[in-house]
Design goal:
Layout lengths: L3 E5 L13 E7 L5 E7 L2 E9 L5 E7 L2 E9 L7 E4 L2
Antiparallel strand pairs: 1-2, 2-3, 3-4, 4-5, 5-6, 6-7
């Protein structure tokens, strides 16, 4: 079973030497979570939005697959709340 489902094609260098690089969208098939944004060497790197299957989102910067720096987290519509993350 494939762990990932590509939703949209990458706009910049879809596969740079066999890795995801540039801007694109990836959806995890098992959970329904998705990430729209920049990639480098198969991980989130740069600006992007991670959306969980319940509708919660994190919009901000990523570095080597980890949230990095300021960003905005917004909870799912049924649990309204949001806060800004500071470095």
């Amino acid at each position: 079973m494939n762990r990932f489902q590509i939703c949209l094609q990458f706009q910049l260098a879809p596969l740079h030497m066999g890795t995801m690089c540039g801007w694109g969208t990836l959806k995890w098939a098992a959970s329904g979570d998705r990430y729209d944004g920049e990639w480098e060497d198969n991980v989130e790197h740069g600006n992007g939005v991670y959306t969980w299957s319940d509708g919660s989102t994190f919009s901000g910067s990523w570095r080597r697959g980890v949230k990095h720096g300021p960003g905005l987290w917004v909870s799912a519509p049924l649990r309204p709340s949001s806060y800004a993350l500071q470095p």
